[in-house]
Design brief:
Layout lengths: L3 E8 L2 E6 L2 E17 L2 E5 L2 E6 L2 E10 L2 E7 L3 E2 L3 E3 L5
Antiparallel strand pairs: 1-3, 2-3, 3-6, 4-5, 5-9, 6-7, 6-8
Amino acid sequence: MLLDHTVKSEHHPYVDVLQNDVAIARLEFSVHLELQLEGVLVRVRGGRIDGLLAGRIKAKGTVKLGEFVLVERKLRPIAIPGSLSLDRAA
């Protein structure tokens, strides 16, 4: 594998609770996202580089209200489409 990189992101969306068109409370959520990029995979056959594969992405996220976890998800790895064949037979 030639490249690994992790991207982390935190957001704080909110919902205002209204009564008679007046804000009486605000519910603020914490959203944490993490993307792990697993870069180019090198395919080796017979001691030679035969091709390159684009890699994959892993993702997970959490939504909290205060310290209470509302949603927590981890996705299966997602393959990034694309490959390059280095066939030297020609």
